[in-house]
């Protein structure tokens, strides 16, 4: 990252800009600061009038060495530029909504200069560094303006974010009903019995040891071999839910971990004091400051073993939310629907080569011969195998604690040279495909990172789902390194792991009973709720009797990911597209005089080498008096732009003119220096 300029450098840069402005006769209007702060989909009449009359605030944008004055994004087309990029999308009512993307506030020359010198900043001269720093500041500001533009565009049609199909609502309602039946087994009334403060930064010495995967200790069921990593290969018509699959989604073969006899026995065999599901662990390690807006509730049961000495903690799956947006609901439906389709309907692969085989991973029979849980393990193994599902159990260590984590995989991605990888699945809803795929948000990246962290030796298959049609439009394959590169410095997962350690330490001090760990939206703490005994009062909270899974009207406006408007034209990442120049204006408007630097002609100071206009003396300007008329005869019309300057080659080389002199020659007679200066008007940005 380039260092920021101080006030003295900024002042010098402003002086250079003003000098450049004074030397420019064919200036382009820029929008006011009021326009740049209020992003509009189309300019109003007042804005157009303001831009047309802003000649006193013009800047120079032409030539390789031009500098653009800092200002708002441009709604008016700069002189000689192509039309602004047009887009359209379909509203929920089927109406076509057109919109136009504004031009960048940075001139094309500065876009090219920034990209050419981004990797060699230290080698630049002081003046070039000032120019680079100025471009960097304006590009960062314009990146925020771009996000605001697309967010405001999306906010004008919020109904698009509330739509969902009846099948999706039916499936999610079935899922919530199943979880509510499980909640009937736990107490209804709870009261706050403690709280764990969450850290916002890393602290030295705050955690004893690392959260590490130790080994896989048991597995049940079967895995699908996946020849391809494109999820569209396995879905009928790319739908996230098939119509005939609804019956298979009603009942899950996997019991809650509190009733999992295999998990209970594994904890005894491997001396694990805590058992939990992968979803619970993902939620607990996702507590980074940038993700505090993600609420959840996790049921916890603390019990003592037969000798009443060893404490056993069980953490179940997060409870369904009381209310959620249509986007959150569709995301959960997409993930469950894709998993169900791949596990239960491999024969429906569109191309016939998606899922090629199935193999068992069951090794529970080796667990405990003659133990009291053997029959229960056999029943569980049979049910999981018949459902074409799988369960894995691994031990983890965190300081002096040992954990048992239960998880499952989508399938096994076939590799080469024993490089097979397990597959996990996640989904991302897309509402801006008319522009591009949406950007990754911090909660999404934290969710994917934690899912890969909890599932050893796995890759994540991310399904990009178009919200309008509920179809998968693209699949992205990720590993933790991919997500680390995308997240950059947006969040630090190690802070979430440290917060998880603090929660574990608190839970291990709780007496025997039922609890709920509750993280509320935006709070930097996790509340611990204990079972309320002795009846309800003002301090109790009803957790299981309240309705859950209700849809709200909240929307999340995520801007589309940046993409270059034209791969052949330099464009700073995150900015609006620079205008496409059809060519520089060669003549002054409504005049027959070639454009030239007025300051140089008067002997005043201008921008020097960075001045985009020809530096012509009065004698050289006199040579150019016939250029307009002769070009008019050559091209049979008035021309505004030139790819090259027409001139007499014989005169330039000092040879006799074949047409008999300057007056009779059809080409202008220009000197070498005059020709070089006029060439500035022919160069594209």
Description:
Helix content is 29%, strand content 18%. With 685 residues, it is an alpha+beta fold. The strands form 3 sheets. The protein has a 15-stranded mixed beta sheet that branches. Strands 1-2 form a two-stranded antiparallel sheet. It has a two-stranded parallel ribbon with strand order 8-19. The longest helix has 30 residues. It starts with 6 loop residues before the first helix and ends in a 7-residue tail after the last helix.
Give me a quick take on this structure:
This protein has helices spanning 7-22, 33-37, 45-52, 108-117, 126-155, 166-183, 261-269, 278-285, 326-344, 374-386, 442-454, 480-487, 493-507, 598-601, 618-623, 627-635, 649-652, 672-678, and strands at residues 86-90, 96-100, 189-197, 211-226, 274-277, 296-304, 311-315, 323-324, 355-360, 390-398, 401-407, 411-413, 421-430, 458-466, 471-478, 513-519, 525-531, 540-542, 550-551. The model is unreliable at 1-72, 77-81, 347-356 and 368-372 (pLDDT under 50). Helix 4 (108-117) packs across helix 5.
């Amino acid at each position: 990252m380039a260092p920021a300029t101080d006030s003295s450098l900024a002042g010098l840069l402003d002086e250079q800009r003003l000098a450049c402005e004074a030397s420019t006769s064919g200036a382009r209007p820029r929008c006011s600061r009021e326009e740049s702060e209020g992003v509009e989909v189309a300019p109003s009449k007042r804005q157009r009038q303001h831009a047309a009359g802003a000649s006193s605030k013009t800047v120079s944008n032409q030539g390789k060495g031009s500098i653009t004055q800092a200002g708002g994004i441009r709604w008016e087309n700069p002189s000689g530029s192509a039309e602004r990029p047009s887009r359209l999308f379909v509203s929920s009512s089927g109406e076509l909504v057109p919109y136009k993307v504004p031009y960048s506030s940075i001139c094309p020359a500065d876009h090219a200069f920034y990209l050419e010198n981004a990797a060699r900043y230290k080698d630049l001269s002081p003046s070039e560094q000032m120019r680079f720093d100025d471009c960097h500041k304006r590009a960062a500001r314009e990146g925020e303006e771009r996000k605001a533009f697309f967010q405001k565009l999306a906010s004008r049609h919020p109904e698009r974010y509330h739509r969902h199909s009846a099948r999706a609502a039916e499936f999610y309602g079935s899922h919530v009903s199943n979880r509510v039946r499980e909640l009937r087994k736990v107490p209804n009334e709870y009261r706050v019995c403690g709280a764990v403060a969450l850290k916002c930064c890393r602290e030295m010495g705050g955690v004893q040891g690392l959260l590490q995967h130790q080994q896989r200790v048991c597995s049940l069921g079967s895995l699908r071999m996946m020849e391809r990593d494109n999820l569209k290969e396995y879905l009928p018509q790319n739908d996230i839910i098939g119509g005939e699959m609804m019956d298979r989604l009603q009942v899950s073969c996997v019991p809650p971990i509190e009733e999992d006899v295999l998990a209970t026995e594994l904890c005894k065999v491997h001396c694990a004091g805590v058992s939990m599901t992968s979803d619970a662990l993902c939620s607990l390690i996702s507590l980074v400051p940038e993700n505090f807006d993600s609420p959840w509730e996790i049921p916890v049961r603390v019990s003592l073993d037969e000798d009443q000495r060893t404490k056993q903690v069980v953490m179940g799956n997060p409870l369904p939310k009381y209310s959620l947006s249509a986007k959150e609901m569709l995301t959960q439906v997409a993930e469950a629907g894709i998993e169900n389709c791949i596990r239960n309907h491999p024969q429906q692969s569109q191309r016939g080569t998606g899922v090629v085989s199935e193999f068992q991973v069951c090794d529970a029979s080796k667990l405990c011969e003659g133990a009291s849980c053997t029959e229960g393990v056999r029943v569980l193994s049979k049910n999981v195998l018949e459902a074409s599902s799988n369960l894995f159990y691994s031990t983890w260590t965190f300081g002096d604690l040992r954990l048992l984590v239960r998880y499952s995989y989508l399938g096994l991605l076939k590799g080469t040279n024993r490089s097979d990888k397990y597959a996990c699945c996640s989904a991302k809803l897309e509402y801006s495909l008319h522009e591009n795929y949406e950007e990754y948000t911090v909660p999404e990246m934290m969710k994917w990172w934690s899912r890969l962290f909890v599932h050893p030796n796995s890759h994540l298959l991310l399904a990009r789902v178009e919200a309008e049609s509920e179809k998968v439009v693209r699949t992205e394959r990720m590993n933790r390194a991919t997500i680390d590169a995308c997240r950059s410095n947006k969040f630090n997962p190690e802070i979430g792991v440290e917060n998880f350690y603090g929660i574990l330490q608190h839970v291990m001090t709780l007496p025997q009973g039922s609890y709920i760990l509750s993280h509320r939206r935006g709070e930097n703490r996790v509340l611990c709720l204990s079972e309320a005994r002795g009846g309800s009062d003002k301090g109790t909270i009803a957790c299981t009797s309240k309705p859950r899974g209700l849809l709200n009207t909240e929307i999340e406006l995520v801007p589309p990911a940046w993409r270059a408007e034209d791969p052949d034209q330099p464009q700073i990442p995150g900015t609006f597209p620079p205008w496409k120049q059809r060519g520089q204006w060669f003549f002054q408007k409504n005049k027959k005089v070639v454009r030239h630097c007025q300051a140089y002609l008067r002997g005043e100071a201008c921008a020097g080498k960075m001045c985009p206009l020809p530096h012509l003396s009065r004698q050289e300007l006199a040579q150019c008096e016939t250029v307009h008329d002769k070009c008019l005869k050559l091209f049979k019309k008035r021309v505004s732009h030139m790819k090259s300057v027409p001139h007499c080659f014989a005169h330039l080389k000092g040879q006799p003119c074949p047409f008999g002199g300057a007056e009779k020659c059809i080409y202008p007679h220009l000197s070498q220096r005059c020709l070089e200066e006029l060439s500035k008007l022919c160069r594209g940005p």
